[in-house]
Amino acid sequence: MRGAGALAHYRLGSAAIVLTLALPAQASVRWEPVESGTTAEVRGLHAADGGVVWASGREGAFTRTLDGGKSWVAGQVPDAGHLFFIDVHAVDARSAWLLGTDFDGYESRIYRTGDGGDTWSVQYADSAPGMFLDGLAFWDASRGIAFGDPVDGAFVVLVTEDSGTTWSKVDRGALPAPLPGEAGFAASGTAVVAQGNRHAWFGTGGGDVARVYRTEDGGSSWTVVGTSLPAGSSAGIFGVAFRDTLHGVAVGGDYRDPMGDAPNLLRTVDGGHSWAVVRAPGLVGVQYGVVHAGGTAYVAAGPPGTAISRDDGATWTRIDSTAYNTVTAAGTSGATWAAGRDGRVARLVGTTQ
After folding, report:
1. Residue 61, beta-bridge partner list
2. Over the stretch 12-41, which tens digit does the pLDDT of each residue have?
């Protein structure tokens, strides 16, 4: 039987709430909607560069643009209609990975394409009881990491060094034991992030404490630190982002109380060894996803709307109240995108710096 945390995020797809608020945009940026070519709910989003963006979502759906959002080509991965592709990572216009989980059963898969989505190959598949992958990230085109909820008393962490041709499960002894009910949240595909050459982090909730797991050696060994962000069966950390190996932020909240005023933001300046709660009035309610958007800028998104920070997460300015699940940004250019329910995709107009 799944723990409370796993059940909570497992039902997030059906429990998601779309909210709109009569608040004016306050940031010097705005979202410009684009026609994504799909009506599927999107939680996976990745910009390979300023013009190439991939998105993925419910019922095996994916879509991509090669021209900065002017046109999109959408598709469905064969034999994957039961999977929710909650994360995507793209190298370029032709090469990408999709991470999918069955929200109604025990199955997770990782797919790869090398021909722009015309064909997909299964690189990893697991249907063991309790199997639920939450996200993936890559250091480069060869080396990547994925994580999932605890199975048999340990978080599932997978690593690859050959572009996913093989995925190896990290030994359970290398991971701190999970708390009762502790799990990941598959809300945005940003619950795990890789930075530098071998650093990576993933955030959790579901238990009594929201925690961040950390590796400095490419996933071979891990430490974990508790935070002061509220946690519980429907609360914890939903997204993590770093601009380098020292400076990062984590966002979250309680998806059952989307407009709640409980703390929803953490900052670190020591690589995740410690985290401090930051009260930011411009960051409203539960936040599902966050991304580094160039320089010292971050953009966060959730059902209550989006916000931007230009000072390493210290202060935040509200962009608007449109609901999005996830965000992505293209490298140092800061070209930023958001996506959510009903195939909603938008690009950020204006500078993030």
Report:
1. 76
2. 433 333 333 333 345 799 999 999 999 999
Q: What tokens appear for 276 in the block? A: 């401090």
Residue 110's nearest CA partner among 145, 73, 143, 76 is 145
Helix (H) or strand (E) holding 12, with range, is helix 12-15
- Taking the C-alpha atoms of 131, 136, 139 and 143 in order, what is their torsion angle to the nearest 10 degrees? 40
Residues shown for the chain: 353
- pLDDT confidence of residue 353: 81
Contacts of 10 (CB under 8 A, 6+ apart): 2, 103, 132
In what helix (H) or strand (E) does residue 14 lie, and over which residues does it extend?
Answer: helix 12-15
Q: Cβ–Cβ contacts within 10 Å for residue 266, how many?
A: 25
Residues whose CB is less than 8 angstroms from the CB of residue 337 and which lie 6 or more positions away in sequence, other chains included: 45, 47, 53, 69, 327, 328, 329, 345, 346, 347, 348
pLDDT digits (tens, 9 = 90+) for 1-15: 233 233 333 334 333
Instruction: Quote the CA–CA distance of 248 and 267 in Å, as a whole number.
Output: 6
What does the pLDDT look like over 276-325, one tens digit per residue?
A: 999 999 999 999 999 999 999 999 999 999 999 999 999 999 999 999 99
How far apart, in Å, are the Cα atoms of 221 and each of 156, 171, 325? 13, 9, 30
Instruction: Write the DSSP assignment of 275-291 as a string of letters.
Output: -EE---TTS-S---EEE
pLDDT tens track for 191-250: 999 999 999 999 999 999 999 999 999 999 999 999 999 999 999 999 999 999 999 999
In 16-132, the DSSP E strands lie at 30-34, 42-47, 53-57, 61-65, 73-76, 84-90, 96-101, 108-113, 121-126
Residue with the two structure tokens 């999970």:
178
In this prediction, residues 99-107 reach a mean pLDDT of: 95
Amino acid at residue number 176? P
Secondary-structure percent of the chain, ordered helix, strand, coil, rounded to 5: 5, 40, 50
Mean pLDDT over each residue of the chain, to the nearest integer:
92
- Residue 329 CB coordination number (10 Å): 24
Q: What is the pTM of this model?
A: 0.92
Report CA-CA distances (Å) from 86 to 31, 188, 327, 339, 340.
22, 7, 12, 12, 11
Residue 234: closest CA among 192, 187, 202, 189? 187
- The pLDDT value recorded for residue 26 is 57
